[in-house]
């Protein structure tokens, strides 16, 4: 049986923390970044991030039909941390978080997960033998790295396109 407990991945993004936070905390944009998410929609009248808000996420990995889980937002600290927890009947409970630290000309973004309730043996059986995911830890690591790279691409394009003086914009060179 595989071991799955926690991991993290980091990337430097040349954009302000508040802009990157807005992208991540708008879960409806998650499919732009995550290779395993097809769709996210807020539930129960929620329209944005708030502790306790729930959303439906449609996930998909190779050799497995798509499935829906319903995470709940656990941490909302604009420009600092955004976190949520998802529990699946045969998939245990996993807490996901994004942390934002100002750094040089941008932000160091760290994506983490922590398994707080392990997968039961039947969940591992399904993942490994029915769906052919022999190294779920490596799958998740690769997904985090890909998500962070896609997030960087979108955030840096947005920061570069912002007008001078606007939030997320770069100051124009004033030399003559």
Give structural notes.
With 176 residues, the protein is an alpha+beta fold. The protein has one domain (6-160): Alpha-D-Glucose-1,6-Bisphosphate, Chain A, domain 4. The chain contains four helices and eight strands; from the N terminus they run βααβββββββαα. The strands form two sheets. It has a five-stranded antiparallel sheet with strand order 1-8-7-6-5, covered by helices on one side. The chain has a three-stranded antiparallel sheet with strand order 2-3-4. Strand 6 and strand 7 (92-103) form a beta hairpin. Helix 1 (17-25) packs across helix 4. It is globular. The chain starts with 5 loop residues before the first strand and ends in a 15-residue tail after the last helix. The model is unreliable at 168-176 (pLDDT under 50).
Describe the protein's topology.
Elements: E1 6-13, H1 17-25, H2 30-33, E2 37-42, E3 55-59, E4 67-69, E5 72-77, E6 81-88, E7 92-103, E8 106-117, H3 121-130, H4 136-161
Antiparallel strand pairs: 1-8, 2-3, 3-4, 5-6, 6-7, 7-8
Helix pairs in contact: 1-4
